[in-house]
Amino acid sequence: MEILRFTTAGSVDDGKSTLIGRLLYDSKSIFEDQLDQVSETSKRKGLEHVDLSLLTDGLRAEREQGITIDVAYRYFATPKRKFIIADTPGHIQYTRNMVTGASTANLALILIDARKGLVEQTHRHAIIASLLQIPHMIVCVNKMDLVDYDEAIFEKIQEEFKEFAAKLNLKDIRFVPISALKGDNVVNRSEKTSWYSGETLLHTLENIYISSDNNYIDPRFAVQTIIRPHSDKFHDFRGYAGRISSGVFRKGDDIVALPSGFTSRIKSIFNGMEEVDEAFPPQSVTITLEDDIDISRGDMLVRPDNQPQQTQDLDVMLCWMDEQPPRPRAKYILKHTTNEARCMIKDIKYKMNINTLSRIEGDKTLHMNDIARVQLRTTKAMLWDPYKSNRITGSLILVDEATNNTVAAGMIRRNK
Amino acid sequence: MSNYQLSHLDELEAEAIYVLREVFSQFQNPALLFSGGKDSITVAHLAKKAFYPAKIPFTFLHVDTGHNFPETIKFRDDLIEELGVRLAVGSVQDAIDDGRVMEETGANASRNKLQITALLDTIEDENFDVAIGGGRRDEEKARAKERFFSHRDEFGQWDPKHQRPELWNLFNGKYNPGEHFRAFPISNWTEFDVWQYIMRENIEIPSLYLAHERDVIWRDNTWLPMSEHIVLRDGEKVEKKKIRFRTLGDITITGGIESDADTIEKVVEEVSAMRQTERGNRSDDKRSETSMEDRKKEGYF
């Protein structure tokens, strides 16, 4: 059984909570006491139906205001897969939360109301999924029951979405006509959409091929910490602990440590207490080398014939996440893999209209939820790959030195 | 490429180990909150793997309500010795004796909330800058919003509405003097994942989790274990039942369920068919719909 992480986004009335509620309920992931509590609260609020959004909206303020403030993580499993849902709100702070939810997702689930077709929010979700390079997308055309399960409506929405998506970088898009409320094509095939030959939503989630979502081509290992037991049994043991970002590392491989450039060979690889012959993403392992070379946290082990970029200037798509805009000439702590440097925003090239994909030129300000292409200058050379080919070594966050807040998230673009 | 696919338990394990190593690297003086319950035992096991062949570089911190299952304390002491780590105890009884907190009175009195003071005082006294917990997002709706690295202000408070965004696997553990963090390596695990992992890894757990004969009373819709701290109310009687516990906490408020599952294999089977959340047997969570959020804001685990 493997894990599929997916993100959902949507507003109050597009049926997102109902859909999540149904996936949880039909996969028996909602417990009776949780359901009892939600039913009771729904009744107290004077609602006629059981409001399944109360399952995900956990904070007092959310329940009082009937809105989702923050990303909520939900879990369910079928005999085939374990699912982690990053459920993100569709309204306030939408970009910030959607970017957060999308950063770890294999798949984006987009809901479209069959009566309304594509709306601004649909574009926004698709653009963010594309920016964050989520490998797969399922577009659910929901509320099919309210349009008499009309094939023509489903086809039209599908065509419109494909036309819009052609401008984006989305590789794998699937469409499913559903009714979250009635359960059509969610877990069970609907008899009312006999014209639809595709799979149900759950079947797609269970079977979509995700094994190639990781990068197995470019070996990258960012060192987290050094393990030196100082015990009699492991007197000379010096292990480099970290998580494989990408590629495969094998015992006996020639490696080069960056930024020093010293070379050596892999002597052993430990996965927990067990010695293994090879390691691949996203395993956490400890690597020992044949030679005693100077390596510390933030350094990277790579193969001599396949190395990352090393530059102090970074071309980045940046999402601003803080209530305060950047202060003039402010320095930020840049966190990238296990490495850290100070940096400044040298230039804001253009901002992006996240609803239309068009560029806003000349506006040099950054506000919360803005996405902009910026030039960063760091105090030392960073070891990076383009986000497009490596989501781990191509991503970064900025931390404000004054408040310690995480103020921005960035994706490094390919060099021109 | 198919042989490079990790199972869900392997992926969760890799994630938790990564988080534990980040904690070690980003903080000066980490504590691992150890209650003797299955979640903290799992975290201890993961920490052992994360730093092998070195010892676990964390002090274990037990917040002791004074209302313990004797089995839990014995288990704790044995594990501490086996791992060779240091144990710090934050004692609720001491906090009461010192006059830092007042024992609750009334029908539903418990020492649950008093743990907050014992925990925060110990964090301050020992200068811990991070406390690693076994909290999981599936446990409770307020916990579903929790970060892997969760900031606490100088009063130990959690501000759920102004949390730092957490993206990819980049964790921000920066803090000002007096503040601290909570870290949750098994955030993405469910109760079922924990049980499956315990079974797979053959991790030793207190016998209380397996079905056993015990003197219990029926109170608040659960089988409460009889102990020196329990005062019988009208109509209550002590019965002998075969029960097991799904969570281990304060003995006065942790209820058991009737069960025949006396091996880990049977427990895993039983959990997979379970229709009630594990905290449904904890009266501390039944006080109000947001009782967990309220306690967490003040500094609870």
How are the SSEs placed, and which strands pair?
The complex is a heterodimer of chains A (416) and B (301).
Chain A: E1 2-10, H1 16-26, H2 32-44, H3 53-56, H4 60-65, E2 72-77, E3 81-89, H5 94-103, E4 107-113, H6 120-131, E5 136-142, H7 151-165, E6 172-177, H8 201-207, E7 220-227, E8 239-246, E9 249-250, E10 254-258, E11 263-271, E12 274-276, E13 278-279, E14 284-289, E15 300-302, E16 309-320, E17 331-336, E18 339-352, E19 359-361, E20 371-384, E21 395-400, E22 406-412
Parallel strand pairs in A: 1-3, 1-4, 4-5, 5-6
Antiparallel strand pairs in A: 2-3, 7-8, 7-15, 8-14, 9-13, 10-11, 10-15, 11-12, 11-14, 16-20, 16-22, 17-18, 17-21, 18-19, 18-20, 21-22
Helix pairs in contact in A: 5-6
Chain B: H1 8-26, E1 30-33, H2 38-51, E2 59-64, H3 70-83, E3 87-91, H4 92-97, H5 114-125, E4 130-132, E5 149-152, E6 180-183, H6 191-201, E7 212-219, E8 222-225, E9 239-244, E10 257-258, H7 264-272, H8 291-298
Helix pairs in contact in B: 1-2, 6-7
Uncertain regions spanning at least 5 consecutive residues of chain A: none
Give the number of helices of chain B. 8
The CATH architecture name of the largest domain in chain A reads 3-Layer(aba) Sandwich
Can you count the beta strands of chain B?
Answer: 10
Rg over alpha carbons of chain B: 19 Å
Rounded mean pLDDT of chain A is 90
Strand content of chain B: 15-25%
Question: What string, H for helix and E for strand, traces the elements of chain B in order?
Answer: HEHEHEHHEEEHEEEEHH
Q: Which quaternary structure do these chains form?
A: heterodimer
Shape of chain B: globular
Strand content of chain A: 35-45%
Global morphology of chain A: globular
CATH superfamily of the largest domain in chain B: HUPs
CATH fold-type name of the largest domain in chain A: Rossmann fold
CATH superfamily of the largest domain in chain A: P-loop containing nucleotide triphosphate hydrolases
